[in-house]
Amino acid sequence: MTRAVRTPAGSRPALAGALALTLVAGGFAAWTGRDWYAAAHDDSAAYAVQRDRALAAGEQAVQNLNTLDHRRVEQGLDLWESSTTGDLLKQLVDGRAEFTGQVKTAKTVTTARVLSGAVTELDDRAGRARVLVALRITVTTPDSKSTEKDSRMLGELTRAEGRWKLSGLGQAPVGGTAAG
Known about the structure:
Radius of gyration: 30 Å
Strand content: 25-35%
Shape: elongated
Strand order of the largest sheet: 1-2-3-4-5
Distance between the termini: 101 Å
Structural class: alpha+beta
Helix content: 40-55%
Largest sheet: 5 strands, antiparallel
Number of strands: 5
Number of helices: 5
C-alpha cells in the first residue's frame, strides 16, 4: 500500500506562480533576443555605420584641407595628400611646389574648426558619398592679426584603400546664390 505525500497548504499556488513567472521571463527573453538579432543583422544598421564613417572622414578631411601652418607646410601638405584621392590628390601633388612657396612667402597660419556636417548622398556599394561641412576658418598673419570666416564646403568622397577620402571639394552656394 502506498501512501499519499502531503504538501503543506498553500505551496501549490506558490509553485504555480513561480512557474508562470518563469514562463513569462522566458517569453520576454526570447522576444527581446529576436528583436536584438533582427537589429544586428538589419541592412539599415550597416548603412548607418557607413554613413557615420563617411561623415567623420569627410569632416576631418575638409578640416585638414583648410588648416595649414607656414612653419610646418610640408607636414600640412602631407596630411592634405593623405586625406585625398583621385583628381583632387593629383591637383595637390602637381601644385605642391608652387603652393609651398606661396604659403612660406605669406607666412600665414590657417586653422579650421568644423561647426557641423551632414551626408547629403551615400552610395555604399559604389563607394561614393557627398558631404556638406560648415567650418569656421581662422587666418593669422605674421603680425599676429587674425580674421575669422565661416564657410560651407561641399565634399565628394570616394572609398579608397578601405577608407573614405576626399575626391572633390568646393564652396557651397550661400543664401540667394544660384547653384550651377
